[in-house]
Specification:
By secondary structure, the protein is α/β, with parallel strands linked by helices. About 20% of the residues lie in helices and about 30% in strands. The protein starts with 8 loop residues before the first strand and ends in an 11-residue tail after the last strand. Belongs to the thymidine kinase family.
Length: about 190
């Protein structure tokens, strides 16, 4: 499915942290470039963990990206001859993202979104549930649980060596210093109702 469809489409790559979502996004973007398709990559401005103007996987592979403040900027900055639009960390965008993604796909573009489907509480994250519902293709990736070695589908936030409370803020941009991949049975959320 890496070839450009005749009509526009939406692909969503989701999973917990450390499952390879950005790495897969970069792989698809590179294949589109090999096919001589014009690609634009976008990321939320707030995600500056590794580089302000690149999407980077935790293993270090990267690709140039345009940082944007809101979903509307993606539509405004997408050039008419772009055939593939890639969006990393989709969970951090506002609720307008599904409308923007639909508009791009309706105009004939292949749109690839990557993001966390669940927040650290184990609940649907931002615009991701809607993106999953409207996508033609969904790939849910797993990581390795740091406790059991089993497939991990949850992101565990760790604060001062302990699981974060349900009442902590949803968004905390971080990596291995703040998060671990966990299987369902090892995912802890103190104070969860």
């Amino acid at each position: 499915m890496d070839a450009l469809p005749r009509d526009g489409s939406i692909e969503v790559i989701c999973g917990c942290m450390f499952s390879g979502k950005t790495e897969e996004l970069i792989r698809r973007v590179r294949r589109a470039l090999i096919a001589k398709q014009k690609v634009q990559v976008f990321k939320p401005q707030m995600d500056n963990r590794y580089a302000a103007d690149q999407v980077k996987s935790h293993n270090g592979s990267g690709f140039d990206a345009i940082p944007v403040a809101c979903a509307g900027d993606i539509l405004r900055l997408t050039e008419p001859d772009t055939t593939v639009v890639a969006i990393d960390e989709a969970q951090f965008f506002d609720d307008d993202l599904p409308r923007i993604v639909n508009a791009l796909a309706d105009s004939g573009k292949r749109v690839i979104c990557a993001g966390l489907d669940l927040d650290f509480r184990g609940e649907p994250f931002g615009p991701m549930p809607t993106l999953l519902a409207i996508a033609e293709r969904v790939d849910k990736l797993t990581a390795i649980c740091v406790v059991s070695g089993e497939p991990a589908t949850r992101t565990q936030r760790i604060i001062n060596g302990k699981p974060a409370s349900y009442h902590d803020p949803i968004i905390l941009v971080g990596a291995t210093e703040s998060y671990e991949a966990r299987a369902r049975k090892h995912h802890e959320v103190p104070d969860k109702p």
